[in-house]
Amino acid sequence: MARTDADTWDLANSVGATATMVAAARAAASRRPRPVINDPFAEPLVRAVGLDLFTRLANGALDPVDLDGNLGFPRMIDTFAARAVFFDDYFAEAGTAGVQQVVIVASGLDSRPYRLTWPAGTTVYEIDQPQVIEFKTSTLSKLGAVSNAEHRAVGIDLRDDWPTALLGAGFDADQPTAWLAEGVLIGFLPQEAEVRLLDNIVSLSGDGSRLAADYGQVAGQSEEAQQQARAMTDRWRDLGLDLDIAALTYPGEHTDVAAYLWAHGWQTVTSDLAEIFTAAGLPPLGDAGQQAPANSIGFVRASLG
Ligand SMILES: C[S@@+](CC[C@H](N)C(=O)[O-])C[C@H]1O[C@@H](n2cnc3c(N)ncnc32)[C@H](O)[C@@H]1O
């Protein structure tokens, strides 16, 4: 179904289901013989959402043939594992540099507030749609998950006035902040909302702030990318899930986040997916790097001052 200006969702439908997909991939990655990540909250969170295909992906019930080569998304499990490692490392560096304020936008079922050990004195804010935040917070609370940071979850749409909500939750714009936008600036926001999001982040960032993100278009416009997206949708439908990721994205060019930040005086370091595979210690991405979505997504770590 096409996106609309004020559409909402939970974790079982629309863009919310993509958060469940990514968490299911992290759960599957955590079950690998030599895992590069360990996300113990991913599987119970995915199970609680209740989408059968993702539950089977998360709990190991899916046929390994489907898992590794037949989901219509080349190297899917490793892709989300590599991405998780890349951003985990980013937070470790920010903590070492003394940054004690963290904001994770579009946090979905990311369990980092609970999964990572934060330096003493850290406050971690998360922003996502209200239904997503409520579901994750209550499910993790039932699981007994505890964050070692001061954790504040803000349920608001990123197309709305989230800076006021964040400031209302105690965010301090005078402190350096480590921002994370993982899996959202890849087509899930309208282009003008992407720029507004980045404008707001820049204006809320004191000296010493950082930002990490992936960016581009998960469902590119090229014939090859469209074909790839259709293959994935069809394969998932065969496996019992009706989720058309391409239809959930806004078509067209999306913001080059690294170029945007550079133009605003931030230092930027970019990587492609093949590089973050190598950095995570995964087997090389190989030919999958020439295909969508690998060839249409970039990764950036940026800092101010
Ligand atoms: C692919 S998921 C990524 C979730 C998480 N960052 C991760 O990597 O596991 C995309 C997330 O973006 C959130 N999102 C997309 N558009 C949003 C909006 N307009 N307002 C708030 N959240 C949004 C969705 O709810 C979803 O949790």
UniProtKB/TrEMBL annotation:
InterPro entries named among the record's database cross-references: Ppm1/Ppm2/Tcmp, SAM-dependent_MTases_sf, SAM_mthyl_Trfase_ML2640-like
The EC number(s) given in the record are 2.1.1.-
Gene Ontology molecular function terms on file: methyltransferase activity
Protein's UniProt keywords contain Transmembrane: no
Q: Name one Pfam family in it.
A: LCM
Q: By its UniProt entry, which Gene3D superfamilies does this protein fall under?
A: Vaccinia Virus protein VP39
Q: Which UniProt keywords apply?
A: Methyltransferase, S-adenosyl-L-methionine, Transferase
Sorted alphabetically, the Gene Ontology BP terms of this entry are: methylation
Keyword Lipid metabolism: yes or no?
no
Q: What family does the entry list?
A: Belongs to the UPF0677 family.
Task: Give the NCBIfam families listed for this entry.
Answer: mthyl_TIGR00027 (TIGR00027)
Q: What does this protein do?
A: Exhibits S-adenosyl-L-methionine-dependent methyltransferase activity.
Cross-referenced PANTHER family? S-ADENOSYL-L-METHIONINE-DEPENDENT METHYLTRANSFERASE YKTD-RELATED, S-ADENOSYL-L-METHIONINE-DEPENDENT METHYLTRANSFERASES SUPERFAMILY PROTEIN
What's the protein name?
S-adenosyl-L-methionine-dependent methyltransferase
Q: Which organism is it from?
A: Mycobacterium simulans
Origin organism lineage: Bacteria, Bacillati, Actinomycetota, Actinomycetes, Mycobacteriales
